[in-house]
Amino acid sequence: MVQSFQRRGLMLVLSSPSGAGKSSIAAALLKSDPNVVLSVSATTRSPRPGESEGVHYYFVDVSRFEKMKADGAFLESAKVFDNYYGTPRDHVETKLRDAKDVLFDIDWQGTRQLRENARDDLVSIFILPPSMQELERRLRGRGQDNEDVVQKRMARAADEMSHWSEYDYVLVNRDIEKTIAQVQNILAAERMKRARLIGLGDFVKNI
Question: pTM for this one?
Fold first, then answer.
């Protein structure tokens, strides 16, 4: 009888200052790899046009959110402006057991919470721009923000980048295609770590 083993999924965090390429990298991973799924957060804000329950967010009221947080139902949570956001533990655990890798687009504060709550499943990558000048050029090149917003993003970038040493991997995004390939290589190596291969010991005994 052929013996086999399976893989436990991992939590892949991508963090970067706005404009460094994080969103493009995440989109490429989701498009190219069916085993990568995006984390779905719970939020207290109202649904926007086109958003679906359980696909984009889990929409809950404030009292429900606070109860979930008190019960330890979130791997990480934060208040952004007037709304709460949190990553439901059960949703992520289900995906990990199904050998799916859950992709997180969160900042250093959320990453720190994930590290405290689920370190063994976490793989964190920080994306740096080649320079602050290049970061500003990219922000302006997107044409999405006015001058005031660009300056606020630049001011925030320095604080965000000061936390680079808290991450497992740090990549400098000089070329988006090369950086995507580097992230894919990291993911491939992390998937094969012995600790994530369930039943490997029995498989070895039987060969």
Answer: 0.87
